[in-house]
């Protein structure tokens, strides 16, 4: 089985521009365009959040598709399932809008689309090779890679920084 890709966050690179939020909403719109999405009713909802921890620290938050996903076990209508790729998905046809999943999510990243009375979460843009939020990030704060590839890149960077610090 191949390694699934994840969305990783480089918090030191996020400048809080919200390009990821806009790209997510547009990707989940009917029109797939910014101006079209603004005119849609109901308006499309982003599945990503950028939290301003302090003026110098912004953190993009997205569904982590937890291995032991509490939302999946708490869903009383059976709308939340894990697909073959390991992505936790919400079947909006089954969602009854009880918000139980919202209450149990440890990251607070399951949103409520109030007009549609449905729960929304990151679905990693299944029709795209790279999620819209990752493509839209101008600073590279969002990275879409497998765990081994991302971990390897982090180790390489840390090794280079260590050598620089030691004068090598």
Q: Can you describe this structure?
A:
Helix content is 29%, strand content 20%. The radius of gyration is 18 Å and the shape is globular. A two-stranded antiparallel ribbon has the order 1-8. A two-stranded antiparallel sheet has the order 2-3. Strands 4-5 form a two-stranded antiparallel sheet. The chain has a domain at 65-121: Alpha-Beta Plaits (2-Layer Sandwich), CATH 3.30.70. It is α+β, with helices and mostly antiparallel strands and 168 residues long. The model has no long low-confidence stretch (mean pLDDT 94).
Structure in a nutshell:
The chain has 168 residues and is of the alpha+beta class. 29% of the residues lie in helices and 20% in strands.
């Amino acid at each position: 089985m191949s390694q699934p890709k994840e969305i990783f966050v480089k918090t030191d690179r996020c400048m809080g521009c919200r390009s990821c939020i806009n790209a997510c909403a547009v990707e989940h719109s009917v029109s797939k365009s910014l101006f079209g999405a603004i005119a849609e009713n109901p308006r499309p909802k982003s599945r990503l959040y950028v939290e301003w921890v302090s003026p110098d620290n912004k953190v993009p938050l997205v569904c982590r598709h937890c291995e032991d996903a509490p939302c999946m076990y708490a869903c009383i209508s059976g709308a939340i399932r894990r697909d073959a790729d390991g992505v936790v998905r919400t079947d909006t046809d089954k969602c009854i809008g009880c918000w139980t999943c919202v209450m149990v999510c440890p990251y607070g990243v399951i949103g409520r689309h109030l007009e549609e009375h449905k729960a929304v979460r990151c679905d990693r843009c299944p029709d795209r090779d790279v999620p819209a939020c990752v493509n839209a990030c101008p600073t590279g704060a969002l990275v879409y890679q497998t765990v081994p590839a991302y971990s390897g890149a982090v180790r390489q960077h840390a090794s280079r920084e260590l050598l620089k610090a030691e004068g090598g």
